[in-house]
Design brief:
The protein is mostly helical. About 55% of the residues lie in helices and about 5% in strands. It has a two-stranded parallel ribbon with strand order 1-2. The longest helix is centred in the C-terminal third of the chain and has 19 residues. The two termini are about 40 Å apart.
Length: about 140
């Protein structure tokens, strides 16, 4: 028997003081602004020698892997309604935390989901709020 359980508060955080957002992730290269002076000459040299332009790389990565490109100009070229839906859903998303931080998220989240779905959480909204507080504290360290 399958049971469908609605998340407490739907898309609204149970406390009704904040709304939820999807976690988003991309496959791209990011240079920390504190290191830009170290990498910029290398990147400019690579581009000058190879003629590689960022949008061409992103377009090629999409053609090869079928994922929405991180570059907005390349993502706008996609004419696939399913991928457009992912793009729309991620428009207000929050960047996914790093791998160690996500370990904290999935541990608390998984336990809370099991408790809510299994009926062990006497107050699902309170369980969800506790989960959010625990995840926030774990990520902040």
């Amino acid at each position: 028997m399958q049971r469908v359980v609605e998340h407490p508060g739907g898309r609204e955080h149970p406390s009704e003081t904040a709304t939820t957002a999807a976690l988003t992730g991309t496959l791209t290269v990011w240079v920390d602004e504190t290191r830009i002076n170290d990498i910029k000459p290398v990147a400019e040299s690579f581009q000058a020698k190879t003629g590689v332009v960022l949008d061409l790389v992103q377009d090629a990565l999409y053609s090869t892997g079928g994922r929405v490109p991180a570059l907005k100009a390349s993502a706008a070229k996609i004419n696939d309604p399913i991928l457009a839906g992912f793009n729309e859903a991620g428009a207000t998303g929050a960047p996914m935390p790093s791998i160690p931080e996500m370990g904290s998220v999935w541990g608390f989240w998984g336990t809370t989901e099991v408790q809510i779905i299994g009926g062990q959480a006497a107050d699902p909204a309170a369980a969800w709020t506790t989960m959010v507080d625990n995840i926030t504290a774990a990520i902040k360290g």
